[in-house]
TrEMBL record:
Belongs to the SLC34A transporter family. Residues 234-278 are annotated as: Disordered. InterPro entries: Na/Pi_transpt. This is Solute carrier family 34 member 2a. Residues 261-278 have a biased composition (Basic and acidic residues). One of its GO terms (molecular function) is sodium:phosphate symporter activity.
Amino acid sequence: AISWLNDYLCMCVDFPFPFGWVTGYIAILVGAGMTFIVQSSSVFTSAITPLVGIGVISIERAYPLSLGANIGTTTTAILAAMAAPGDSLANALQIALIHFVFNVSGIIMWYSIPFTRIPIRLAKALGNITAEHRWFAGIYIISCFFLLPLIIFGLSMAGWKVLVGVGVPIVALLMIIIIVNLLQERRPSCLPTVLRSWDFLPLWAHSLEPWDRVVAVVAAKCCCCCKGRQTGQEEEEEEEKKGGGNFLEMYDNPAMTSGVDWEKKREDKEDVLKATQL
């Protein structure tokens, strides 16, 4: 499988002008085939990620490969469904095909039309932010994979009215921010003078520099505390090693101890005899 990927990367060129759009769909087929061979989309995407990082594969080419991997991973579910007993074969195939159709519909929605390839632009933007502020990657993972699902789950448990009442204003605010950002980049003349930039907001509301300083201060304090504890432990160990030669170690000799005990017993017997003689 790795040799096939190397062969594909060697031929990783766009088709001539009339058929340039075919290149991405060929990449989707390659991603699906590679995932079908290794039977794991995670393995395939994990192999692509460092290649994108070192510049062997562009993000525009890695995107269709990842989409193809999502199609290839559905083959495992289809094969498992075909091995189901006869009475549950129909239900198993329906679930597997739903998985397949869901992934294909996602590809049609986010790849077939060039201007809908929003994940590519998002990946570049988030990558540029992370390259400047390394802590942003951890905040992004915690927020998107833990906090956001928990918040949505909690609102859904409270009822659909609460979910709609809280979710709709937040989504509307995000849409307004996105539209204003697009107009600031492309048609700033359409906006009022105040909205042509976010400078009217506090610095922490439109820039990551204040948060970067906060993270740097917290990290420095944590490092100093950890370093101080480690230094204290090392000093204690050194003092114990240096002072270890000044202490005398004493051991009990069983022979001597037993002799002393025998002498005490004999003296006790003599005292008893003297007392009885009196």
